[in-house]
Structure formats: C-alpha cells, structure tokens
C-alpha cells in the first residue's frame, strides 16, 4: 500500500481533495466554527502521512498540481469585485484607509511581539508576511532572508484563525456593514478569510478579494522598511 501511494503522481492531489471534502461535510453537518474544512484537511493529511510513514516530499510532489492553481484562483476573486465596482467607487476612501491601517497594524503588532519575546531578526522577517496570501508571502519572506516554510505555516494559521473567529469578532464589536466585514477579512486573513467573506455575501467577498491584492502590494512595500527596525 505504501509503495502504491509513493509511486502515484496523483497521490497528493487525491488526498488533499478527499481530506478537504471530509472537512466540508463535517462543517455542513455540525455547523461548528472550529470545524474549518482547511483545518480538518490539514489534520487528516498529517495523520495519513504519519500513519503510512510517507515522506512529506512525496506528498508535496503530487500536491504541486494543486499549488499551480493557487495564483489563478486568487485572480478569479476579481470577478465579484468587478460586479461591485460602483460600491467600490463610493467607498474607496474608507476601503483604502481600512486596508492601510490593517497592514500597518499587522506589522507593528509583529514588531512589538518580537521585542517582547526577544525573537531574532530572521524570525521577525519570517512573520512579517503572515496576513497576505501565500503566493506573495513566500516571495516576501525569501527576499528578506526569512524562513519560508515557517512563513507558509504562519500564513495558513492566520487565515484559519481569521476564518474561524470572524463571526464571533464581528458580533463582539457590532460590525455589520458588508464592506467593513470584507475588508477586515481580506486584509487580516487573506484568501482563507475571503472564503469566509464569500459565505457572508457577494459584497463581503468582493471587498475581501480587493483587500488581498492591495494588502499584498502594501506589505511588499512595508515589510522591507520594517525589516530594518529589528
């Protein structure tokens, strides 16, 4: 069985899709926030790799077929944005203000926490891209000589946490405007957060898609500047 899995070029794709579908089914059945499909799929894949003693590189070689779709899938988020173009024009000042403040808040929080916990420079630059999409975050981390693998893990954790806690946070702070919800999720929790925004509504999803792109660009500019502080 192990040899079959190791020699199959589609093993990574098959396991990833099936694990995610299990997560989706659990989320629909129990409607519990912590049962996030991505989080469930991560746990299932880890258990399979450990249980069958399969190397991560073997799984990753097959899963690369899915990774190639990451960038075009992110670009497709421009479609709901185009459909809400009039709303964007009416609220562009508030939207841009929200995204800029979100990017700066993320960078400042990382700086403060690194100072508190006495983290070294390499770990600081590794954490800086935590709130942007993986496709951009990996490049930023590599450019700043960070640890790319840790950056990817932190980006995923950030997205999952944002996805899971979104409803609770919005209820706690009485955030009801769809534009504010979308901008908040897209800026702080990138594509995974935007997936949650799309569940909330078309406007939320459109604003989340916009926030991913703008926050990514701003982080590319802000991260090198902050990297010289610590």
Offer a few descriptive terms.
mainly alpha, 230 residues, globular
Largest sheet report:
none
Mean pLDDT: 87
What series of H and E elements makes up the topology?
Answer: HHHHHHHHHHHHH
Overall structural class, as computed from helix and strand content, comes to mainly alpha
Gyration radius (Cα, Å) is: 18 Å
Count of helical segments? 13
Low-confidence parts lasting 5 or more residues at pLDDT below 50?
none
Task: Please give the share of residues in helix.
Answer: over 70%
The domain count comes to 2
**In what range is the share of β-strand residues?**
under 5%
Q: What's the end-to-end separation, in Å?
A: 49 Å
Shape: globular
Count of individual beta strands = 0
Quick description:
The chain has 230 residues and is mainly α. The protein contains 13 helices and no strands. The mean pLDDT is 87.
């Amino acid at each position: 069985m192990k040899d079959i899995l190791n020699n199959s070029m589609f093993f990574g794709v098959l396991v990833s899709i099936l694990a995610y579908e299990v997560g989706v089914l659990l989320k629909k059945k129990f409607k519990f926030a912590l049962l996030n499909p991505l989080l469930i799929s991560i746990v299932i894949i880890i258990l399979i790799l450990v249980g069958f003693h399969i190397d991560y590189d073997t799984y990753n070689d097959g899963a690369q077929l899915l990774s190639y779709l990451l960038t075009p899938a992110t670009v497709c988020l421009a479609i709901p944005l185009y459909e809400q173009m009039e709303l964007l024009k009416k609220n562009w000042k508030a939207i841009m203000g929200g995204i800029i403040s979100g990017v700066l808040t993320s960078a400042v929080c990382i700086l403060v926490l690194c100072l508190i916990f006495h983290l070294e420079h390499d770990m600081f630059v590794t954490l800086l891209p935590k709130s942007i999409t993986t496709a951009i975050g990996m490049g930023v981390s590599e450019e700043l000589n960070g640890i790319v693998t840790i950056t990817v893990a932190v980006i995923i954790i950030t997205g999952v946490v944002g996805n899971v806690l979104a409803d609770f946070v919005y209820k706690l702070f009485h955030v009801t405007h769809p534009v504010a919800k979308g901008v908040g999720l897209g800026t702080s929790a990138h594509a995974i957060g935007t997936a949650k925004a799309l569940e909330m509504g078309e406007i939320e999803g459109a604003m989340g898609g916009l926030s991913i792109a703008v926050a990514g660009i701003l982080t590319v500019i802000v991260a090198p500047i902050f990297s010289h502080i610590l």
